[in-house]
Each structure stands twice: as C-alpha cells, then as structure tokens.
Specification:
heterodimer, A: 256 residues, alpha/beta, six-stranded mixed beta sheet, 12 strands, B: 285 residues, mainly alpha, two-stranded antiparallel sheet
Chain lengths: 256, 285
C-alpha cells in the first residue's frame, strides 16, 4: 500500500457553538513521527480523538490505510458503522491518555494482558509472555504485580504505553502524555517514546515538549483556532516559524 | 537535631513525661444510664406474660427450622434475581438507545411505585387474570398450578428488588471515571465488554455497601410472602400459634432467627468489600 497510513480530509467538529475543527486536512505516511503543537483549545486533542473515533467527526473523513473510519459509503450515501465495527477499527490504533487511565482494579500485567486476551481472543499464556516482555521493554519488569495506585505517574504512563502496544497497533496516538507528570518523571516516559519512534512506529503526538519534538519528530504541525497554521520539519518550524501566530506561541512557550 | 534529654532554654523537656489517661466522664455516665434502662426492660419482660421455656422449646422445632431455611433460600434467590434484573435495567437506562432507556425507566417507575405486598398478591392471583398460561402451540398449563407460593414469592420479591437494585448499580456505574470507558474503547472493547470487564468490577466497590443494605431488607421482606402461603419462618410461626396461642413466644422465636441471619451477613459483606477494594485498599492501608 503506497498511500499515507492516515489521511485526514477537511474534518470539521463543533461542540455546541464552539467550532473545534474548521476543516483540517493532513496526511501521515507510514513510519512518520508527527508532533501536533498549539495552545489549549486549538483543536489538536480533538483531532487526535477523531482519529481514534472517541470523538465523532461532523463532516469530512479520516482514512486509516485506505479504510474510511466510522462510516461506509454505499449507494452514494454515508452509513454510520455499528458500535462493534467501530470497535474493530479502533484495534488498529493505540491511544495513550494524558491521565493514563489504567484499569484501576487490575495489576500492571493484567492491564496489558486484558486487550489481547479479551478483545483479540489470544491464548492467555502467550499474551502473558508478551506482556512481560513489553513491561521489560518499558523498564518495569519488577512492577508486574503492582496496582496503578501503587505506581508513580511516570510508571503508570509507561504501563499505559505497553498496554496500547500489546494490541500490536499500526498507529500510536499520544494525547499530551507528559502533561500530568511531575517534571522529574517526564524524562522516563519520553525515553520510552523515543525508543518506540526509533523502532519505526507511526506516531501522532500532541505535546508541549518542544525538546522532544525537535529531537524525535519528522514533522511538526502547529494548530490554532481549529486549523493548521503551519507545518514542516522541526528545525524550520521551531527555529524559524514564518507565521506570526506560530512565532507568538513559540516565544510564549519558550519563555515559560 | 535535639535528642532525648536536651531542651531549649525556657521550655520544659517533654520527652520524659508520661501521657496521662483521659477519663471520659460523659461516656461512663451515658453507659451507666443505658445499662440501667436495659435492666429495667429485662425485668419487665422477665416478669411479663411471656413463658420463656416456650421460646427455648420452639426455637429449634422442625417447622421453625424449615421456615428459616425457606426464608434464607427465598432471600438468596430473590436477591440474585433482583441483582440480575438490576444490572440489566441499569445498563439499559444508561444506553444511548431511547427505546431501551424508556423501557428501563418505565420498569423502575412501575415496580417501585406500587407496594410490595400488593405485587405479591397480584402474582399469586395471576390465575384470576390468565387461567391458562403458556406459549401457544408449544406448552401451556393452568396458572393455579404454575403460580405456586414459591414462584409467586420469587417473582414478586425479585422483580421488585430489581427496580431498587438498578438504581444502586446505576449510581455505581456513574461513579467510575469516564477515562476508564475511553481506555477500554481505545483497546477495541465494545460497550458490553467494557461494562462487564472494566466498569462493573470498579462499580462494585461503591455498590456493595448499599447492596448489603438491600439484602438485609430482602431477608426481612420475605416475611411478606407469608400472606401468599409461602412457608417461611414467620408463616410457620403463625401456624404454630394459631394452634397453641403462644403468640408472643413464637414471634420472639421468629425475631431471634431473623437477627441471627442478619448477624451472619454483616461479616460476609465485609469480606466481599475487601475483595472489590483491591488496587485501592492497598495504598490507603
């Protein structure tokens, strides 16, 4: 398949009177690490949630590997997919949340095994072995039996990344993965994401970590007011922004 | 840092002083008054028109033991039915489907809005409405044969309980963080699997204390089934005092049995609560 892994075309979304996305189009080729930056309310999180269908688009379309998400074209009309068909489409993307959202009643290992065993119906023995390997990969092999409440924020987020990876997704979405963390815990999560990017995973990352974007991203997209204002290589966008809005945002973030 | 024995000039050293025991005069006084009142009450009952030997004798007669066994069986089965219905109704109530939502709301309205004893009598007398019940062409029977006191009591108590339990379960589901739903969706779970695997187990922690309350209520509500001839402990106690006129003695016998059953339930509930608090209790310690 030669087309982009993710194709976003003229996506619009409004919440009541607030227009969160005003026609956004974006292609993400396979293997790319894309960082979405922008002030809160700029629509970057909404765009990410639309890709995972946690938010339903009002207009426009998103294609994953050529497959239209959330709807089906039949007889010249759009038919909304059923809940279970949407659930099936979601298995191909992994999502990491700002607030981790680990299942509170399960240990770290159980959190990771849950999807493969319950959703993909994989044999528990195999899934557990893979989950242990994933825990080792995020540096938490000794925390398999710990409950989320016993882990630090950074550890919880690393388990959450492992949980998403256990579904063997083609695309990983990160919604401000380090925003809820104490400053000293940010590094360990970014290190795992850096390793993941190096392994060739396609990633869309909503972030305020400009250092991470500069170092790891293939492309940086700056959003404001529900539209894409400027995009390009991190060195260009972060060091020499052309648009006044981008310049204002970056200087505000860096001064902080 | 200042160690034991050293002290800042001008302030006495506190480290060697023993703590004095506080005397709670108010508590001693209140306890004394209560004990005195209980003794008065006990004396009144001891001297009253109660033949205590009868209470001791009838406490373990086969009819009473049968009765308490039927009470416990009915309470457990009706509660199980109530929880099953309650979960289903709560899930329907929270569904995006307007038809399911209205059905659930209507169910709660109907069975919570009429007295339990009236519902029991309706089930028991169903034969007056439908003399023959069944599935056309497959199976049919006379309603009087089907609606035994046991089945009438089970349906009446269980269906009524379902209406109350659904609200308890719904509150539990609403108490679970919405991030848990989204995380479950993000790994490809459907609505029902999300509820069953992720949300309900976490809701249990919130649901159990009121549910324990409801179960204790159910144990006592089974006594209403005595009006439709279900042989639970109160019904059997009544049958005995119709014959021997020892009314108060037999009511005390039944009362003691209810107290015993409820007393056994309380530690069971604590065990269950501990189980469903896993992942949370460990940290609070």
């Amino acid at each position: 398949m030669s087309g982009p892994l993710v194709a976003i075309r003229d996506v619009r979304k409004r919440f009541g009177s607030f227009e969160a996305l005003k026609g956004v189009s974006l292609d993400v080729p396979r293997g790319e690490v894309l960082c979405l930056i922008g002030a809160s309310g700029s629509g970057k999180t909404t765009l990410l949630r639309c890709v995972n269908q946690l938010t339903e688009v009002d207009a426009g379309g998103i294609w994953l590997d050529g497959e239209l998400l959330g709807s089906r074209i039949d007889g010249g009309r759009l038919h909304r997919l059923s809940e279970s068909q949407i659930a099936r489409q979601r298995r191909r993307t992994g999502m990491v949340f700002q607030r981790f959202n680990l299942f509170a009643h399960m240990t770290a290992l159980q959190n990771i095994v849950e999807g493969p065993v319950q959703v993909l119906r994989r044999p528990p023995g195999e899934a557990t072995a893979e989950a242990s390997e994933l825990l080792r990969r995020v540096g938490l092999a000794d925390k398999a039996a710990s409950y989320p409440a016993e882990l630090s924020g950074g550890q919880q987020q690393r388990v959450a990344i492992a949980r998403a990876l256990a579904m063997k997704p083609e695309l990983m979405l990160f919604d401000e993965p380090t925003s809820a963390l104490d400053p000293e815990l940010v590094g360990e999560v970014l290190a795992v994401m850096r390793e993941l990017a190096a392994s060739g995973m396609t990633m869309i990352v909503v972030t305020h970590e400009l250092g991470f974007a500069r170092e790891v991203a293939d492309r940086v997209v700056y959003m404001d007011g529900g539209t894409i204002v400027e995009q390009g290589a991190p060195a260009d966008i972060l060091a020499h922004p052309r648009e006044p809005r981008t310049q204002a945002f970056l200087s505000a973030v860096i001064r902080r | 840092m200042s160690g034991k024995g050293t002290h800042v000039a001008g302030f006495p050293d506190l480290s060697d002083l023993p703590a004095a025991r506080r005397t709670h005069w108010g508590r001693w006084l209140a306890a004394g008054i209560i004990v005195f009142l209980i003794l008065l009450l006990a004396r009144a009952f001891a001297g009253g028109q109660i033949e205590w030997p009868y209470v001791a004798r009838f406490l373990t007669v086969p009819v009473i033991l049968d009765g308490i066994r039927n009470t416990v069986i009915m309470a457990v089965l009706a509660m199980a039915l109530g929880i099953a219905i309650g979960v289903a109704i709560a899930v329907m109530r929270l569904s995006p489907n307007p038809v399911l939502k209205s059905v659930a709301a209507g169910y709660t309205w109907l069975f919570r809005g009429t007295p339990l004893i009236l519902q029991l009598l309706l089930w028991f007398n169903l034969a007056l409405v439908f003399p023959v019940i069944g599935i056309p062409g497959l199976w049919s029977a006379r309603a009087v044969d089907v609606m035994t006191p046991f089945l009438s009591a089970l349906l009446g108590l269980g269906i009524n309980q379902g209406a109350y339990t659904s609200e308890v379960i719904r509150a539990g589901i609403l108490s679970v963080d919405s991030g848990q739903f989204e995380a479950a969706q993000s790994i490809g779970m459907g609505r029902l699997m999300t509820l069953w695997r992720i949300v309900l187990p976490q809701a249990m922690r919130v649901v159990l204390p009121p549910l324990g309350n409801e179960f204790i209520g159910m144990v006592k509500a089974t006594s209403l089934a005595s009006v439709i001839q279900y042989p639970e402990v109160l019904h059997n106690a009544e049958n005995i005092y119709y014959a021997n006129s020892r009314v108060i003695e037999l009511l005390i016998v039944a009362g003691l049995w209810y107290l015993l059953v409820v007393s056994v339930l309380t530690p069971l509930q604590m065990l269950l609560e501990r189980h469903f608090a896993r992942g949370i209790a460990k940290v609070r310690r």
